[in-house]
């Protein structure tokens, strides 16, 4: 009897193979090489000093600002008035042109905006505080006597 050579072909009765996945197709292409590209020793290196200078000049963003932050918010007007004596503060309030205009507007019966009314109220309470501190009595009825 003659000998038959074995083959790798499965024939019609064998289970079919699964189709190749896209991942398998990528592997068939050019493989990613290891190491540096050819001619790497002969090519000039990029300027590393420039990159180091940029990194050295740029402050670390994590450190934040060194500017001191006040713990209590204070308006600029409050800072200015602290240096003055109560008598000087009282004089400033009496000579405040904006306050005088708003008071005249209020006396004429015109309606003040919310911001204007807030300003008048703040200055009036401060005036009363200074007057009480200096021992000046405020008469509410002084208009009636005149």
Q: Explain this structure to me?
A:
The longest helix has 21 residues, at 114-134. By secondary structure, the chain is mainly alpha-helical. It has a domain at 85-134. It has 7 helices and no strands.
Largest sheet: none
Q: DSSP helix count?
A: 7
Helix content: 40-55%
Category from helices, strands and their pairing: mainly alpha
| Oligomeric assembly | single chain
Approximate strand percentage = under 5%
How far apart the termini lie comes to 148 Å
Q: Any low-confidence stretches, pLDDT <50, length ≥5?
A: 142-146
Keywords: GTPase activation, Ribosome biogenesis
GO molecular function: GTPase activator activity
Region (Disordered): 1-86
Biased composition (Basic and acidic residues): 21-30
Tell me the layout of helices and strands.
Blueprint: H1 22-28, H2 48-57, H3 76-82, H4 86-94, H5 97-107, H6 114-134, H7 142-145
GO molecular function: GTPase activator activity
GO biological process, one term: ribosome biogenesis
Region (Disordered): 1-86
Sum up the structure in keywords.
single chain; mainly alpha; 146 residues
Would you kindly provide a brief summary of this structure?
47% of the residues lie in helices and 0% in strands. It is mainly alpha-helical. It is elongated.
